[in-house]
């Protein structure tokens, strides 16, 4: 059953609330021009007629932000003024190209129809969240709606860039190391021998005497009592001290080392 003018105007007002103000023409805004409504109603009648037999077509049409334009105002090479909604597009269209899109993939739907997945530039309200599935493997060499006529794609002509060399760990001793970009700090020392190493999460850091914190190289002066780091001695420019974390070991630690580590890192 065809919609009455009152029903069409109600839909037009709802459409305006969502899309209004996007197609200003001359001195009169389009919602003041009855011609905009007439164009909208023409498209609505076409959409209703198509969707009444959507099962036979295999896809449905819907309203988008261009639904108040006449064919003369907006002649799209792919879909004309028919706003796409869902399904694989197999309908009629021309090959007079005046709009660029991006083919981002391909596939086959549940009915066995091959398609190109195409991204348009009209926003997420158009088509299937901004995309359309165009029929693929058609008989025309130009492709559906001329999709294969003026194809461009990037071509790689140079060698691949050289990958950066992996950064080496900071070596604390023959058995301990810290990740690249960090500094080794001794957490427990007997005479001149460090039993337990820790890591400061900064390169070139100062290891504080509390054996638990450290300072970055731009604030190298430790204040153990306040757990801060100063830019210089007695400088008011301070930052919070950083907490060390355990260094990596290449062999299992001894029982004594486990006890010491539990004291300093728990």
Overview of this structure, please?
By secondary structure, the protein is an alpha+beta fold. Helices cover 18% and strands 25% of the residues. The protein contains four helices and 18 strands. The protein has helices at 5-19, 34-51, 54-57, 255-265; strands at residues 60-61, 84-86, 88-89, 102-108, 114-119, 131-135, 170-171, 176-178, 183-190, 193-200, 206-207, 213-215, 221-223, 228-230, 238-240, 242-243, 245-246, 248-249. The protein has a four-stranded mixed beta sheet with strand order 3-6-5-4, with no helix packed on it. Strands 7-8-18 form a three-stranded antiparallel beta sheet, with no helix packed on it. Helix 1 packs across helix 2 (34-51). The longest helix is centred in the N-terminal third of the chain and has 18 residues, at 34-51.
Gist of the model:
The protein has 266 residues and is of the alpha+beta class. It has 4 helices and 18 strands.
Q: What's the alpha carbon Rg, rounded to whole Å?
A: 35 Å
User: Strand tally, please?
Assistant: 18
Largest sheet: 4 strands, mixed
Task: Provide the low-confidence segments as ranges.
Answer: 24-28, 76-80
Q: Helix and strand string, N-terminal first?
A: HHHEEEEEEEEEEEEEEEEEEH
Given the C-alpha coordinates, what overall shape results? Answer: elongated
Strand order of the largest sheet: 3-6-5-4
Summed up, the helix count is 4
| Percent helix | 10-25%
Strand-residue fraction? 15-25%
What structural class do the secondary elements suggest? Answer: alpha+beta
The oligomeric state is single chain
Question: What does the average pLDDT come to?
Answer: 82
Domain Cathepsin propeptide inhibitor: 12-74
Family: Belongs to the peptidase C1 family.
GO molecular function: cysteine-type peptidase activity
Keywords: Disulfide bond, Glycoprotein, Hydrolase, Protease, Thiol protease
């Amino acid at each position: 059953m065809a919609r009455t003018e009152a029903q069409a105007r109600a839909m037009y007002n709802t459409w305006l609330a969502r899309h209004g103000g996007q197609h200003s023409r001359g001195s009169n805004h389009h919602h003041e021009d009855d011609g905009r409504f007439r164009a909208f109603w023409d498209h609505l009648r076409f959409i209703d007629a198509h969707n009444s037999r959507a099962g036979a077509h295999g896809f449905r049409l819907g309203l988008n932000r261009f639904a108040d334009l006449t064919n003369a105002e907006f002649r799209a090479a792919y879909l004309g003024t028919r706003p796409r909604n869902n399904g694989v597009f197999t309908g009629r269209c021309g090959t007079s190209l005046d709009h660029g899109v991006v083919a981002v993939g391909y596939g086959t739907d549940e009915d066995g129809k091959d398609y190109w997945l195409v991204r348009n530039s009209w926003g997420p309200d158009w088509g299937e969240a901004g995309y359309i599935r165009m029929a693929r493997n058609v008989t025309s060499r130009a492709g559906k709606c001329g999709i294969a006529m003026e194809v461009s794609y990037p071509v790689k002509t140079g060698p691949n860039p050289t990958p950066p060399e992996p950064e080496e760990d900071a070596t604390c001793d023959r058995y301990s190391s810290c990740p690249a970009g960090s500094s080794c700090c001794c957490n427990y020392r007997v005479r001149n021998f460090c039993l337990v190493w820790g890591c400061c999460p900064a390169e070139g850091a100062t290891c504080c005497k509390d054996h638990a914190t450290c300072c970055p190289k731009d604030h190298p002066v430790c204040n153990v009592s306040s757990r801060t780091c100063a830019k210089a001695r007695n400088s008011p420019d301070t930052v919070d001290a950083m907490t060390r974390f355990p260094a990596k070991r290449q062999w299992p630690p001894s029982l004594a080392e486990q006890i010491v580590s539990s004291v300093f890192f728990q």
